[in-house]
Each structure stands twice: as structure tokens, then as C-alpha cells.
Amino acid sequence: MDVDIAQWIDIGLIVVGGVMLSVTVTIVTARRRWRSALSCVPMRSDRIDLVHLAVVVLLFMSVMMGMNHLGRMLEPPGNLSQDQWMGTESVQGFWPILAGTAAKVITAVLLCVGVAVTMAGGLSRFGLRPQRLRRDLVWAGLGYLMIWPVCAGIAYLIVWCTGRPAIHGVLNLLRYEGLPVWGTVALWISGVLVSPVAEELFFRGLLQTVIRSYVDRPWLAIGLAAIAFGLVHHFQPQYVVPLTVLGLALGYVYEHTGSLVAPILIHVLFNVRTIAIDLLQRSG
Length: 284
Hints:
The protein has 284 residues and is mostly helical. The protein is built from eleven helices and no strands. The chain has one domain (5-32, 108-283). Helix 1 (5-30) crosses helix 6 (133-162), helix 8 packs across helix 10 (240-257) and helix 10 packs antiparallel against helix 11 (261-283).
């Protein structure tokens, strides 16, 4: 049976990650440290609350509404049809993805400004600490390798039972041969950079921190933020559970390290693998 390069990469990731995860779980269990893994995690702030969360959500929705209205006024560029430009009920269009990207960038920037002004300790306390990049890179690499087999296994099982979900809008547009080069670049930037950064700033940095300011239970905050992260991807229902599991891992890394950079990098690797594997499968 022929196995293409994309399948070999996935098999390699699953085997290596599975071995690393098994060894790690064995060591942690043997040392009986799993119950106290987050017992000494300090509170980040009592100055970010539900008001900040509501403002960020409303800001994002307002920018999205304005961008979508603008998109309906513009003519589709290049060889894009109106359906490809604005999308349909079942297929996401190019402009809504661009609009979402723009909204995420604007919201993320203003969120960082708000944190720098209102949060005790500023962006460093929030978890944006570039001076610890080397440690964050190690956490990201090891964390991704260990969480990917779990997410992949759950996803494969659900897909096997229920069937494949609709293809993600970004992947669908990347398959379109008439897409201009700048469109391809924009989609890659949106998928592997903007979305991971903005989503981690919101779900881990803001939402998880807000929940922790009301309940002094790190695992509860991690769990609720992870569920919200999974549900926001409801357009691919088969992937809600594995993405919730990914959210649990990202939330744990954030609480354990106090850094947002590490979960952002794990999220980047997760998205890079998704888009790269799809590209390899199409070119193979």
C-alpha cells in the first residue's frame, strides 16, 4: 500500500508524540505530582474583569460587522466569483476571512494596549515575555508533540463514527486555482499567525484570566476557557472535542509557565501542520 509524504509525517508525529506523552505521564504519575501540578499558580490580576471581556467581544463584533458591510460594497478581485468573495450558507468566502483577520488584529492590538494600561505588571504579567523565548520554544515543541497524538486520535475516532466535516474556509479557498498570489499569502498569514496569536490572547490571556479572577481554581478556568475555544469552532462539529482538548493543553501551559508565548507557538505549529498537510496532499 502506498503511503504519501503527508501520511508519513502524520505517522511520525503520532509515534514520536505518543512515546513522549507516555513517558511523561509515567514519570508524573510515579512521582505523584499530577494532583499538585497547578496548586501554587499565582493569580495574575484582579484588575481585569467581565467588563473588559465584554468590551473586547463587542469591539470584535463591531469591526466584523463593519468589514462585512464594506465587503458587500466592493467588487470581487481577480477571478473570484461573488460566492467565493462573500461566501454562501455552506461555504465561507474570501472577504469574511479577511474581515475576521482584520478584526482579530485590531482587537488584539487594543487588548494589549488595555492590558498594558490596566493590568498590574502590564504585558509581562499577562504572559507576553519575549525574554523567555528559549524556554517557550522548548515548551512549544514538546507540548505540541505530546498533545497532537491525543487530538488526532480523538478527531479520527469522531470522523470515523460521524463522517468528515465541511472543509475549513481557509483550506477551501487555498485549493482554488484562480486565487491571486496576494490572496494565498493573506490566507497563510491569517491561518498560521493572526488566528493563533489573537485566539490565545483572548481565550487564554483574557478569558482564562477573567475566570480565574472570580474562581481561585486554575483547572476550572482552564476547562471553561477550553470549552469556549472548542465551541467557537462549531462550524466543524466533529473537531469541537479535539479542539477543546487542545485548549486544555494550551491553558495548562499558560498557567504552568505564566507565558502566553508558549501556547501561541503551540497553536501556530498546530495550524501550520493542518495547512501544510493539506498542501502536500493536494500536490502529491
